[in-house]
């Protein structure tokens, strides 16, 4: 093999190895930070984590104290360890780090309600969307869609959105009265979920009936 071909391949291999080491380290650090924040806020009495794809994230289950039963969630990271796929994932597909949590209770809830970032609404399916009442609210550079079935839910949704410390990372908040759970989807910046997660936990009891 000619030297002119060998050197670029050697450089690419070295860059790929460096990207793998540094990207893996960053994703592990983010996983540690998110889990510590989630545990500080939710204070589980028991916890379980299941790794996803090595350094791509974790599923978790927390057993909680009253008025909560448990929390089930996931945090997923962009493939920082992959030199070739990272730019595709980030720039072409538009992936970002994500945090999801479902919070379960035995309490009766006021009704179904959603706060959804408007651009994200086009990508998800909500049963009976056409029958739900709708209101759009601009917050900073983002526009959110509020959806509800019972009128008593609307003022709580408005307060919930207004109270979020960092609405720029919020993609979806909802209250599901039928199965007595709440859902939160964030796209955190630099692994920061604590402020929005704490406010989410504080707001959920407003939906209790």
In short:
The chain is an alpha+beta fold. The protein has helices at residues 3-42, 85-93, 118-121, 154-163, 194-203, and strands spanning 46-52, 57-63, 68-76, 98-105, 113-117, 133-139, 142-148, 170-176, 181-186. It folds into 2 domains: 1-100, no CATH class; 107-209, no CATH class.
Describe this protein's structure:
The chain is globular and about 70 Å long. The chain folds into two domains: 1-100, no CATH class; 107-209, no CATH class. The longest helix is centred in the N-terminal third of the chain and has 40 residues, at 3-42. With 209 residues, it is an alpha+beta fold. It is 35% helix and 30% strand. The N and C termini lie far apart (74 Å).
List the helices and strands and how they pair.
Blueprint: H1 3-42, E1 46-52, E2 57-63, E3 68-76, H2 85-93, E4 98-105, E5 113-117, H3 118-121, E6 133-139, E7 142-148, H4 154-163, E8 170-176, E9 181-186, H5 194-203
Antiparallel strand pairs: 1-2, 2-3, 3-4, 4-9, 5-7, 5-8, 6-7, 8-9
Helix pairs in contact: 1-5
Give me the Rg, rounded.
20 Å
Mean pLDDT: 92
Instruction: Give the percentage of residues in beta strands.
Output: 25-35%
**Number of DSSP helices?**
5
The residue ranges in which pLDDT falls below 50 over 5 or more consecutive positions are none
Helix content: 25-40%
Query: What is the ordering of alpha helices and beta strands?
Result: HEEEHEEHEEHEEH
Biggest sheet features: 9 strands, antiparallel
Spatial ordering of strands, largest sheet: 1-2-3-4-9-8-5-7-6
Q: What is the global morphology?
A: globular
Distance between the termini: 74 Å
Task: Estimate nothing, just give the exact number of structural domains.
Answer: 2
- Please provide the count of β strands: 9
Which structural class best describes the helix and strand composition? alpha+beta
């Amino acid at each position: 093999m000619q030297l002119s071909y060998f050197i670029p391949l050697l450089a690419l291999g070295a860059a790929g190895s460096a990207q793998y080491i540094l990207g893996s380290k960053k994703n592990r650090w983010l996983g540690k930070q998110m889990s510590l924040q989630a545990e500080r806020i939710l204070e589980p009495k028991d916890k379980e984590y299941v790794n996803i794809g090595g350094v791509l994230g974790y599923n978790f289950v927390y057993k909680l104290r009253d008025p909560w039963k448990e929390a089930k969630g996931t945090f997923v990271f962009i493939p920082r360890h992959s030199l070739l796929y990272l730019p595709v994932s980030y720039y072409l597909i538009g992936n970002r780090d994500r945090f999801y949590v479902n919070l379960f209770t035995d309490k009766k809830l006021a009704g179904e309600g959603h706060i959804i970032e408007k651009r994200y609404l086009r990508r998800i399916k909500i049963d009976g969307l056409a029958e739900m009442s709708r209101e759009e609210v601009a917050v900073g550079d983002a526009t959110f869609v509020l959806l509800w079935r019972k009128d008593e839910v609307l003022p709580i949704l408005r307060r919930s959105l207004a109270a979020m410390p960092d609405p720029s990372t919020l993609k979806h908040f909802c209250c599901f009265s039928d199965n007595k759970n709440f859902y939160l989807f964030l796209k955190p910046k630099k692994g920061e979920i604590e402020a929005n997660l704490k406010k989410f936990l504080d707001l959920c009891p407003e939906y209790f009936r």
